[in-house]
Design a protein that fits this description.
Helix content: over 70%
Strand content: under 5%
Order of helices and strands: HHHHHHHHEEHHHH
Length: 325
């Protein structure tokens, strides 16, 4: 390895941390700047003013989103052919997703899956494949929905932002090309096995990839619909969805559990010109209650039930749920 390559290898982790912390500092600055100008009493009034029908409609969309996301691990069940029941798999996925949203992906999406699936008899290799395929499904749909939104319905970005509408269109086109590349890979390399950090992953078929795409696109669209309903149509749906997609990446990059404050900062920065800040924040806080906190309560109860069930299962049968080699 050349001296230049060694230098790049040594500096890359630091450069990456600098970018992440710089982005985090930008979000923190947005939060502090906006918080000083907000009348929080009016925000609470805005929440109280939300009609019951609006809350019910938003809650129904949130329930549909969770139900759909809970089927992601069923795709991994099909690929790995493990023997856990569909209801059990959906329950584990629901619990992991709720904790993922509130505590971060490492604790919720990863740790809870490994904990619950291993307690139910699955081996680490199978769990890794199921988890990996669910994550791929989620972000595959993100690429397509975000790509379409940025490319065909670009946001009116603040003048202080470095990227303009044309830059956003180019980003959207790039995301769509990445998604297309995945579809092409599935079409031409079906069944090929890839080794990633000691784990084997098999390229799915094109029909499976299209199913991933449909499920994930529908789920991201439902999440955007929850916020759009709570905003009572004051902003076009596609723009609400686009802002949500920007906020989702911002939350991942900053590693803030539940994207706390990040979601609100991004929405205020991009939509404050169209919706009064108090109404916008009221809708977002209602969204957090419906999409984050309420499912967390249900997931906590579900986790306790699953632990008891897993203990009884292991005592009665032992870990016999792996497919025959």
């Amino acid at each position: 390895m050349s001296a230049m390559a060694l230098t790049c290898t040594a500096w890359w982790p630091w450069a990456r941390r600098a970018v992440v912390w710089g982005f985090f500092a930008l979000i923190a600055w947005l939060l502090v700047t906006q918080a000083r100008t907000i009348d929080w009493g009016e925000v609470l009034d805005a929440i109280r003013a939300l009609p019951a029908t609006t809350l019910l409609a938003a809650g129904a969309l949130a329930a549909c989103s969770f139900a759909l996301y809970s089927t992601y691990d069923l795709l991994g069940r099909h690929l790995t052919r493990h023997q856990l029941g569909a209801g059990t798999v959906m329950g584990v996925t629901f619990i992991s997703y709720a904790f993922n949203l509130n505590l971060g992906s490492l604790v919720g999406g990863v740790a809870f899956r490994y904990r619950l699936y291993s307690r139910l008899g699955l081996g680490n290799d199978t769990i890794t494949r199921v988890l990996g395929f669910s994550m791929l499904t989620n972000w595959f749909g993100y690429l397509v929905v975000a790509g379409a939104a940025f490319c065909f319905w670009p946001l009116a970005l603040p003048p202080t932002w470095k990227i303009g509408n044309e830059g956003l269109r180019m980003l959207g086109a790039a995301l769509l090309l990445v998604a297309l590349a995945y579809l092409v890979l599935c079409a031409v390399a079906k069944g090929r096995v890839w080794q990633v950090r000691g784990h084997s992953f098999k390229t799915p078929s094109l029909p499976m990839a299209l199913l991933q795409l449909a499920m994930s696109c529908a789920n991201w669209s439902l999440i955007g619909g929850v916020i759009w309903v709570l905003l009572q149509g004051q902003v076009d749906y596609v723009h609400v969805l686009a802002v949500l997609l920007v906020a989702a990446v911002a939350g991942v990059v900053t590693h803030v559990p539940a994207g706390l404050g990040v979601l609100e900062a991004v929405f205020v920065a991009l939509l404050a010109h169209a919706v009064a800040e108090t109404q916008l924040l009221g809708a977002l806080l209602a969204y957090r209650g419906l999409y984050y906190l309420l499912p967390l309560v249900v997931a906590t109860l579900g986790y306790l039930v699953t632990e008891v069930r897993a203990r009884r299962l292991r005592a009665a049968k032992g870990p016999v749920l792996e497919p025959a080699k």
